[in-house]
Amino acid sequence: MKIIVEMGHPGHVHHFKNMIWDLEKKGHKVQICTMDKEVTLDLLDKYGFTYEVLGKNKSSGIIRKFPLLIGAELKMYLISKRFNPDLFICRGSPISAHISSIFRKPCISFNDTEHSSLVDSIVFPFLDVVLTPSCFIKNLGGKQIRYNGYHELAYLHPYNFGPNPEVLNELNLREGDTFIVLRFVSWNATHDVGQHGVQNKGQFVKELEKYGRVLITSEEDIGLEFEKYKINVSPDKLHDLLYYATLCVGDGGTTAVESAILGTPSIYVSSLVGTMGNLIELEDKYGLLLNFNDSDEALGKAVELIQKPNLKEDWKFKRNHLLREKIDVNAFMVGFVENYSNYLHL
């Protein structure tokens, strides 16, 4: 088959990379189309992928994104005309959804974000299948197929991920050192309008550095006062860092889920708490992640956790429980793509 895979965010590179490699090994041709957003292109280059850039996503607010969307759809149309794909794959993107319908080709979308209703309204009518985790709160109708896993297990399942301690050397750390990763996002995604995350960043740093080294990774400019804590780890090594961390705290949902799946105690701070099934399940069923919409309460829990003996050992046990119950998501994705016609009304 000839397949277009669209990426709009660094997390999409991780999500799709193993699927693309496996499909190419099986003889399929994959054309990557991507937005230039944050470190997306850096990641694609690190992994040796070739790709076409649809546009640079640096604006916030849905109105400002319309010119970008129109330009990206035109580029996708021209690429598709040249490549002649059999199938489109995306993460809830209107670009792939619209262009696939023009070429009358099926489009498979992945979705784990329940609060993206505004974008969904211009995407879902054009999709053929929407793949969601089984814990996804919304019922999306006949196009929805649920699987027993999380998007993040496509690249963090032990079959596809093994931690590399080299990242610790880069930061003057050793395995077993106590260190805390603070993750802050930019809140300029369309589905983040009106939402907020950690409100007292300075207090988190001040309190947590009493117990270990604090490392900050942030999508936004966080000011000179935090500069000495900010790290610029190569984006392909971030998951290694999360694996070895003692604790991860922040307002990035994906990073919170990644940390939990890797067996690192994870605290998610956001006004969106309670809206996403994966974050709810990781707390209620597996105890790997703790959700707070109040920053002060989150800080209190972080200080409590960091002082617990055998904290990481407890989380590794919980992680093993999760891995026994969840599937190898990448293997599921590859199998689904190769047999998609069994699921679509073509």
TrEMBL record:
SUPFAM superfamilies xref list: UDP-Glycosyltransferase/glycogen phosphorylase
Domain of life according to the entry: Archaea
Pfam families hit by this protein: DUF354
UniProt-listed InterPro entries: DUF354
Record protein name field: DUF354 domain-containing protein
